[in-house]
Amino acid sequence: MQILLNKFRNEELILGQSNPVSDEVSNVRNLIEKCPVYVKTPLHDCKVLAKFLGIKSLHIKDERPRMGLGSFKALGATYAIAKEAAKSALINESPNKALKGKTFITASAGNHGLSLAAGARIFGASAVVYLSETVPKKFAEKLRAKGAKVVIEGADYEASMKAASKRATQESWSLLSDSTWEGYSAGYDVMEGYLMMPQEAFEEIPTSPTHIFLQAGVGGLAAAVTASARSNWGSDPRIVIVEPSEAPAIMESIKARKPVYADGKVSVMGRLDCKEPSHLALCCLAKEADFFMTLTDKEVLDSIEVLDDYGLSTSASGGAGFAGLHRALISSECELNSDSRVLLFLSEGKADD
Q1: By CB neighbour count within 10 A (0-12 exposed, 13-18 middle, 19+ buried), where does 90 fall?
Q2: Would you give the distance in Å from CA 118 to the centre of its chain?
Q3: For residue 102, what are the contacts with CB-CB under 8 A and spacing of at least 6?
Q4: Full domain range(s) for residue 165
Q5: Backbone angles phi, psi at 265, to 5 degrees
Q6: What is the count of structural domains for the chain?
């Protein structure tokens, strides 16, 4: 485990992004709530687990049942595609034809691709998803079942994204990544869709948390929750970003004060195993997060075993935030104590790692 205190808190990191991470949820709500499979996911008040951990309270937002796709990612690409479909004259009379003839393409470590495939199908578009060689074969099967065309290319996520971007240019298709980089900002809409998740949690939680632990890959979930938390509660909650030790893209970029490529072995935290950060997310987290943490695969796997005893089984990716809390308590880090009130997000189910 490594922990970095953010010495640059409240300082701007300028990377050429024209817009900050959105904290305006009203437009997201208007579109998401019209989706026929939308149902609010539960927020668990984990009193017994909090007592076991030695903290005052623990609330866990459970994304495992999200829109039948099993992950918070269902909110992102589906929302971005719905936002595009809303511009069509067919959106009210024939929504399933609103984007007929249009093709969306992306690279994914799994769940973002499922969201894109589902959103494309709803509005009559086509979906192409590039997977790297490290993504489990069952994800390809799930994507095909949702109607997506799957292409396996690249040794890792970054390589498959470059291949997808090249194909998008060749075919004049719409690249819809869940990340952003210099010259590409369409991932802004995907991240905006994630705002629905923290907003649901914030409307139910009885008292503002003292700490929020957030797992991060490219940083989309972490940045959306962070922006929303600061909008709702200001600077009070301590926000801790948790990454795999094999993919510390955000931590290393914070140290360098610019985006860096953080190379490492393949992590068991597959959805978090991203070697480059989203520029948009990085700007937000550099200014608003308090701590950055990396955990080894073993640390995460050992910690999330605790969740099995409380009906909260999840994958290493989905439970990395909890693992961060667990390890920080063991090491007396991140200003935690017996009065701490913690909010976590269980971002996916167990079967996908």
Answers
A1: middle
A2: 17
A3: 84, 125, 126, 174
A4: 72-191
A5: -70, 170
A6: 2
